[in-house]
Every structure is written in C-alpha cells, then in structure tokens.
Amino acid sequence: MYRVFEALDELVTIVEEARSVPMTSGCVVPRGDVLELLDEVRDSYPSELDDAQDVLDHRDELVNKAKTEADQSLSSARSEADKTSSEARAEAEKMLADARERADEIIAQARSEAEQTINNARREYEEYVARAQSESDRMVQAGRAAYDQSLHEGRSEQARLVSETEVVQQSQHEARRLVEEAKEEAERLRGDCDAYVDSRLADFEELLGRTLRTVGKGRQQLRRPISAPFDYEEWQPSENGSPAGEH
C-alpha cells in the first residue's frame, strides 16, 4: 500500500509539472511514465480488494446461503426444543405418578400403624384395668379379712375382758381404720389406673393428630403444580411412635 501512495504522488507531480497545451486546459504528459506508474499502482493493490469484490459480486448468493443455513439451524433448534419439552413433560408425569404412589403407601402405612397403636393401647388399658381391679379386690378382701379377724379377736377379747370396754372400742376402731385404709388404697389404685390410661390415650390422640396433618400436607402437595417434591421421608415413624424430627 505504501508503494500505491508513492506512485499516486508521482502521478500528481507529473500532471502538475506537465506542459500546458495552449488555448486549452489540457497538458502534455509522458505516456510511458504514466502507464508505468499506473501498472505499479494496479500491481500494488492488495489481493484482499479482489476478494472483497468477489464477495460483493456473490453477495446475493452468500446472503441466500446464510439465510438457508439459518433457517435450517432454527428448524433444528425448534425440533430439539420440542423433543426436550416432550421428554421433560414425560419425566414430570413419571415423577408425579411416583409421588402419588409413595403418598398412597405412606397413607396406608400410617393407617395400619394407627390401627395397631389403637389396638395396643386398648389391650394395655384392659390389662391395666384388670390388674387394678384384681389388686383392688385383693385389698378389699384383705381389709375384710383383717376386719373379720380384728372383730373376732375383739369379741374374744371382749368375752375375756367384759369389764374393759376401752379395749373393745380400740379394737373396733382399729378394725374400721383398716377397712377405710383398704378402701382408700383401692380408690387410689383405681385413680392411678385411670390417670395412666388417660395419659396414654392423650399421647395416642396427639400421634393421630400429627398423622392426619402429615397426610393432609401430602394431599395438598399433590394438588399443587410441580415445583419441589414433598419430602415424605421427613415423616417416618421412629421407635417411640412419633414422626421423625419431632420430639
């Protein structure tokens, strides 16, 4: 490119220094020198100009080719997007079906464990009541036996000591005291039994409440659009009968 500029400068100098033709605006220039400089200018132009001219000559062809390739790329991208969308939809439906199946399993397991807990509590209640009733009967019988024995001893003592009224009264008072203590002990045992059964039933009622709330949350999650799967592993009954994570 430097030689091009240099040749152009020489051409300008030749034209400026050329002799003028009288009565005209023309001039006389050495043809050989001018043609030689023009050839140098033409030879010095970079090949990129020819390439650029070729690009201009084939512009429409290149534009159409680029447009065709762009349409093909767009069609391929749309096809790939449709395929990806279909696969994602199928995967989402599969995940939803698995979540529903898991929820049904957890609900069935919760119902089974609830029924088992109810049966265990009822059986334990009946056993405890039976033991308490047996202990109460034993205590009453022991009180009656002690009363009868004290009464018998009192009568015997009364027969032997007719004049000692105070001893007889003390014996009767002791006998009545033993009977009252036996009755109070029986009532206390029955009250302890009722309190124990009531506390166990309260614990079971709380367990049922948590179970129903967990089932309700699972059903609400199934009705919502898919976002984040419900963590059903969070509700797993521990060894003491309560859901995992609750103390």
Automatic annotation (TrEMBL):
Entry superkingdom: Bacteria
Biological-process GO terms, alphabetical: cell division
Bias kind Basic and acidic residues: ranges: 79-88
Keywords, ordered alphabetically: Cell cycle, Cell division, Coiled coil
Gene3D superfamilies: F1F0 ATP synthase subunit B, membrane domain (1.20.5.620)
Region (Disordered): 67-88, 218-247
Sections of the chain in a coiled coil: 89-138, 168-199
Protein name: Cell division septum initiation protein DivIVA
Originating species: Actinopolyspora biskrensis
